[in-house]
Amino acid sequence: MLLKNFLNMYIEGFKNLKIGKTLWKLIFIKLFFILVLLKYFIYDDNFKNTYKTQETKIDFVYKNITKDR
Amino acid sequence: MMEEHLVDWSRAQFALTAIYHWLFVPLTLGLGFIIAIMETIYVKTNSDFWKKTTKFWMTLFAINFAIGVATGIIMEFEFGTNWANYSWFVGDIFGAPLAVEGILAFFMESTFFAVMFFGWDKVSKGFHLLSTWLVAIGSNLSALWILVANGWMQYPVGMTFNPDTVRNEMNNFWEVLFSPVAISKFLHTISSGYIVASLFVVGISAWYLLKRREIEFAKKSMIIGATFGLISSIFIIINGDESAHQVALKQPVKLAAMEGLYEGKKDAGIVALGILNPKKTLTNDEDTFLFELEAPYALSLLGYHDIHAFVPGLKDLVYGNEKYNIIPTSQKMAQGKIAIQALKDYKEAKRNNDLIAITKHEKILRENIKYFGYGHLNKPEDIVPPVGITFYAFHIMVALGSWFLALFALLLFFVLKKDILKYKWLLISAVASIPLGYIASEAGWIVAEVGRQPWAIQDLMPVGIAATDISSTNVKITFYMFAFLFTALLIAEIKIMLRQISIGPNGGH
Q: Do the Cβ atoms of A61 and B84 come within 8 Å?
């Protein structure tokens, strides 16, 4: 019952939105841009993906923080 | 060899992202409490007027929240790509507070945010009010964790460097959380958000009064906004004093840059108003200022809580001052180089399984680790941040902060004791001060971040080492892409806000 009321609150809330509809559109466009386009096409080549194991990560950072300038 | 200007482009990109992100955050931090206060009045008085008032400001809060939400995630992507060395080196110290922030923000803000917006007439008044307060408290608690992480970068504590993993590992969570730098940073930053939000409320209320619209709504909102702003302004002076004290103790180079202080002195004054001489450098004898107006003793008092205290200048900090036990940067650089060599020797000894050598080099590393970052500097003068930017940003922040205190006091007096509608100059000043609040708040961040250059982590890692060696073309492309995205979001926010403001408190949300 409590869960049903809670869900109804959301459903009715979304139905009755005025300015909120524009905001939700903006939120979805932005999230798509950040979480899909940026994450998978721009920032896919990151430290975590490039260096899969703990050892390769350590080796990469160790070399960078000890190399002669 | 790292591409030329890559570090600068990576820094510019991070600065752009952080500056834009910070355009959305301060309003959320402060407006949440202002709305909660208004709703509390509504629940106490049961007046429809206060319900309508609360709903209006809540709508503007939602617009800002919706446009700003998730803009901070881009910075996390940047950590992994542009700042890989940094991300690994900070280990779980940075990760733990950010993880707590993520969980807290998700559960507290998103759950109670829905009740706050959709729950009118669906839940009891008391529960709705509780949700509104929890959204305000939740967003401020989120900020706490981010600022704890930032405070650690300014003053790293509560950790041990592990030479096997080349990471810093947290050994005392409470020392990280209750670091005096983190606490003063948190209080100073959130109170700046309260002032931004108060200026937003009084500014929009003033606009209605200038238009002779929604008079009662605007006056009542102005009373709450100005009162909240006045209290926050007094509070920010108190915690600003503590922030400056912490900077003096933990980041004296930053304090010297904030005041354009090249030669250390006792009984040091604060330059209340001044123009820096662009010809001045660390090594020449040119005057520091073309023009200056000084408040005597104030810097010694602010920095060390003693009007006669010696405040070290940039020259003392770079070249050392024996009389005041300030060691020269060249000595720290030598110790830093010993630490870097000890790390290399330790790794070599590990590979050879030479137990005696392992113990010996680890001991040398531990003795010199606090100056590890200095080993990467090219010359002692590298510890000096851009003095001009730091000095002007600090003075803009202080000057605007003083103006806001006066503005809130004047508005409160005139709205309570006089017919404020007759004082057009004051109302125009209030409207014009909305962007000034953002400028002051961003200037504060510029002091904090530019003023601590060249460090990504104070004394341990300069930005040149923190950055990843990637193509600068990619960084440039994403820089312009973000500039476009954030500008578009900002324009959208302003347009939607203006439309909603012009509809007024009688419109829906």
A: yes
